[in-house]
Amino acid sequence: MIEFDPRNLADGKRAAAEGATAVLDRDPAAEDLGAANSDQATEVAMQDTLLTPRFYTTDFDELDRVDVSSVRADWDELIGRMKADPNKKHFRKGEGWEAVDWDGMEPQLKKELIDFLISSCTAEFSGCVLYKEMKRRGSNADITELFGLMARDEARHAGFINDALREAGIAVNLGFLTQAKKYTYFRPKFIYYATYLSEKIGYARYITIYRHLQQHPEYRIHPIFKWFEQWCNDEFGHGEAFALLMKTDPKLTSGHNVLWIKFFLTAVYSTMYVRDHQRPAFHKALGIDPDWYAKEVFEKTSAISTQIFPITLDLEHPRWQKGLERLQRASLNVSDGKKRGGVGGTFTRVVGMAKAAAAFVSIYTIPAIRHDVPASTRMEPSY
Length: 383
Ligand SMILES: [Fe+2]
Ligand SMILES: [Fe+2]
Description:
The protein has one domain (6-370). It has 14 helices and four strands. The longest helix is centred in the N-terminal third of the chain and has 31 residues, at 107-137. Helix content is 62%, strand content 3%. It binds fe (ii) ion (2 copies). One fe (ii) ion is lined by residues 127, 154, 199, 234-235, 238. One fe (ii) ion (FE2) binds at residues 127, 154, 199, 234-235, 238.
């Protein structure tokens, strides 16, 4: 278990390298998490909790056996678009990249902005590592080609964020992360659900921020947001690929697997909700109400996911928003208990975890909305 303690950052590296277990125990808003240098930034990226981006590994042989012939026309078209590489020159600082006044920035905002960048960089790099490994291990030409193209994109994304972090005097040591960060094993079908949703929610998050700042440029606190429009099209395309992979096997989106889909939808949405509420200064500076933002992103992701999933979550159900708020409060209990330590702190933490579990069950058991799935998964980014 990574016991993240800002007073003892050096130990975190060893603890993580020795193998950590996930716990709902981190609250950047409540803890002094400001990464002041690259070592600390790497420490933050090393953390494995329910709320931080993880690295994944899977059964690469099983994934390599996927036969895409049933979706060949859509597949070839998607690969063709990815090979054309419209964003080849996009991830470079150029015109429109203004210097950021890191030294003059309000400390809490600086801390949360850096935390956002580190977390985004880790998430991008997590995709890169998984996709690259699949390309390396596979022998199926379709699969290795796709994963090679996606790894190319994610490497650019992570590198670009790291470039931005360097201006604040810090950088995530990506080589070290690859070696030392814990890898979570997921069966291929869980990789599909989790990664498909990560890509689509990533698209929805980036485009929602981009459109908001287009209307309110006065809130653009960092130039990187100007890059989000073309950037999110890469993520959209990656999501399209996972939708096609799922389409090759109807079992993946029917029967008892629908319960897994519901689980992943609930887990991905609620994680985003809790994590974003831990960055109040960041969202305030962007002029974004995190509740409004969550709703926008969930609605877009849900609408997109109808391309392949036979259910969507009932975001209007009275228990939904209440449950998210309960989960958020429980996560504060957990981090508060952890910070206090001792018997009292442990008690608070355990109670917090029980409350979080109860809140999660309460939203997971909201009846889902069923609908028909189209014959072709194909969709264009339209937000
Ligand atoms: Fe990406
Ligand atoms: Fe992606």
